[in-house]
Specification:
InterPro entries: Flavoprotein-like_sf, FMN_Rdtase-like_dom, NAD(P)H-dep_reductase. With about 190 residues, the protein is α/β, with parallel strands linked by helices. It has five helices and eight strands, in the order E-H-E-H-E-H-E-H-E-E-E-E-H. It has helices spanning about 15-30, 55-65, 85-95, 120-130, 160-185; strands spanning about 5-10, 35, 70-75, 105-110, 135, 145, 150-155, 160.
Length: about 190
Amino acid sequence: MLKKIGIIVGSLRENSFNRMIANTIPELVDSVEYEYISIANLPLYNADLDHGEGPETVMRYRESIQRTDGIIIVSPEYNSGIPGVLKNALDWSSTPTKTAVLIRKPAGLIGATPGAKGTILSQQQIRQTLDAASSYVMPFQKMYISQVLDKVDSESRKLTDETTRKYLQRYVLSFMQWIDQVQRLNE
């Protein structure tokens, strides 16, 4: 059966480097169905709004995650941490507590930055949030893309650095194996 992976980009910027990385993933591993899950129109999390299925945009967002076998989050690092828009989205997908769409959902983390250190601090915070939401974050595999300006083409909006493309392909293939392992855990 064809796996379905949801891709969430933790940046709203149209020409985001992380969006370019996300746009490259489907051409590296084409034996998977992908769905881009937008976080752009989610309201700020407010428990007063989080009753029933929540606001319509939240309901559609949660349904998108539910339809996937796993999610890959591709996110920048802002001020040494998780972008606020992504934290907001993860908060919406971690409620209601007992039926949240992130519970037992396999998750992978990728991040790109123009700097030299990658997105280490942001990914630590994202991992912490996903752990709190009872998501199964892929262990041991880390995908930090530093100095991304030298690795993407702004016209095609894709990752062009061959070495990084190979690492990204290997990461996505490992993530597909992680989905299989989590499915066995959930049986």
